[in-house]
Amino acid sequence: MIPLAARRRTKKLKSPVQTPSDPADLPAILLEVHQRLYQSYGPQGWWPGDGPADVIIGAILTQAATWSNVEMAIANLKQAGCWSLEAIDNQPEEVLAEIIRPSGYFNAKARKLKAFARHLQVNHAGDLDKMLSQETGPLRDELLSIHGIGPETADDIVLYAAGKPSFVIDSYTRRIVQRLGIGGEEPSKSYDSCQALFHDNLPADAPLFNEYHALLDRHAKEACAKTPRCHGCCLLDLCDTGKQALASD
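Predicted structure:
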């Protein structure tokens, strides 16, 4: 079943659907994209993990890494008895770096993990639930103040660990937005402008943002790859790039 938020419509789309030039069309178009992706791929069940701490550790480890390599690093952390922020805080940085070596950039990521764990201990007495219970804006600002936490990782934590509506923007999302031709050129250029495209035109609904981001990533891997596979794409009639590619065949 498609989530309730995804079934809301702010404007009835005409048939056949056209890529919008009027910003007033964007809410309907974005919800249409989500609905089609959901119907094509089903629920994605993101983020893998058993709780907020798992999400945070995974979000830092997955920076510039494939999930298969992150899984190896996670397995090493668990085997070493280091699968908690408290354990990470107590672990020497050089030892932690060796444990997470499979994730790549392991020295930098060890510093980032320890910076988060130390911040949590100093500022929240190690109480992660207390930290994550803040309002979305203050929580995101605090996360961005921690070494190694950029906008994408901060939004991963806000959305998937805290369950608050902050849309995650990654390279896959930018690619799809650019190819669809929605919102003009600006959303594909900067993190904030691309995020604003979703924040300004969708309900502030964490489950919707969760599923939408996961579906965009799935679609980028299945169809909208670096070399797009446009034939059979569920978004083809919405996509400027796809329509142009097929017209030139």
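Summary: The first helix runs from residue 4 to 7.
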